[in-house]
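> agent: user asked for a holo structure of the chain below bound to magnesium ion. Plan: (1) validate sequence alphabet, (2) canonicalize SMILES, (3) run complex prediction with ligand conditioning, (4) return tokens. Step 1... ok. Step 2... ok. Step 3 dispatched.
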Amino acid sequence: MSEVKKIAVIAGDGIGPEVVGEAIKVLKKTEELFGYKFELEHGLFGGIAIDEKGTPLPQETLDICKNADAVLLGAVGGPKWDNNSKELRPETGLLGIRKALGLFSNIRPAVVFDCLKDASTLKPEVLEGTDLIVVRELTGGIYFGEKFRREGAQGEEAVDTCVYNVTEVERIVRQAFEIAGTRSKRLASVDKANVLETSRLWRETVNRIAPEYPDIELEHVLVDNCAMQLLRRPSSFDVIVTENMFGDILSDEAAMLTGSIGMLSSASLGEGSFGLYEPVHGSAPDIAGQGIANPIATVLSVALMFKLTFGYQEAGDVIERAVKQVLDAGHRTGDIAVDKSKAIGTTAMGDLIVAAMAR
Ligand SMILES: NC(=O)c1ccc[n+]([C@@H]2O[C@H](COP(=O)([O-])OP(=O)(O)OC[C@H]3O[C@@H](n4cnc5c(N)ncnc54)[C@H](O)[C@@H]3O)[C@@H](O)[C@H]2O)c1
Ligand SMILES: CC(C)[C@H](C(=O)O)[C@@H](O)C(=O)O
Ligand SMILES: [Mg+2]
């Protein structure tokens, strides 16, 4: 019998509660298979928290997260709240929770399942061997710099500032080198050092740290070129490390190598083992409430939680194997189905994954 692990569950808005519901079934199945004990504590977050508590990130939710060993997050936001005042914007909540929990490292694996190559817009031969990780800096850069409006000579102006300090760059870059060391030992550092001062500092820092990792093959790639190469030769990338906004954009692009954003899981980590796990996708207001969202990104996020926070390697493997088995058997949600008329719903996909889980 293992010790009780506390998981904060913040389902959020739109399809958040739908996909999190399936991930919880998977958690429960591992209790049965491995004898684990999970204590789930639910918190309000995002639009639903604005409606019920007047703020996207209530203190109570933050406390639940801080008291937990890990956080499972669905997604937040939606048209009802997206144009609200600065204080009430759901992204204020998302950015706030990342900062408050010290989650500076966002790991987003993009694994192409062989049987899903037909779901991607790229040719199967281009996708061959694609298995990459985007390591995205998560608590700095333009997302967190000063932003304001002012009256300029030609009318109203808006200003967003991008700031990085050496410490912020060092810690994420070291993590990326470490991850590359556990994989194919190739690291691509993505920046815009031909234009941006923050990118120049980024590149200098990467070059200063690189000699500490002599067995890692390092390349610097400009972000515009990286966006293009991801579609031209995705298998040439293994670990990509980049700043906050570039990582946001490149990871959504990488999602389409896998067939759908509904396939991309993520882990947000700090210095210790604590982590926040969430699908890369958002609350998908266009399909919310229809029971058709793909729960696989959230289910695979649980596998990441098991491996990275709890050290439950075997259980993580069981989840990943079950997902592969269900996909290999031809089951598809609408986003990854070639024949949409045969697509199954969120609950059916979750049930199939749970049924396929075996030691
Ligand atoms: N981490 C988060 O909570 C997060 C991430 C991204 C966006 N958002 C928020 O979500 C809201 C909607 O944003 P968006 O539309 O730009 O991005 P989105 O990721 O929610 O949706 C983009 C497209 O992908 C589809 N999609 C997303 N997840 C899917 C899934 N699991 N299965 C099937 N299809 C899926 C949607 O239907 C939509 O067509 C916004 O308020 C945005 O701020 C939140
Ligand atoms: C909703 C938004 C603030 C968020 C981000 O840009 O970080 C999302 O796109 C993500 O990728 O988690
Ligand atoms: Mg994003």
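> agent: step 4 complete. Summary for user: Residues 241 and 328 are 31 Å apart (CA to CA). The chain has two domains: 1-103+262-359, 121-258.
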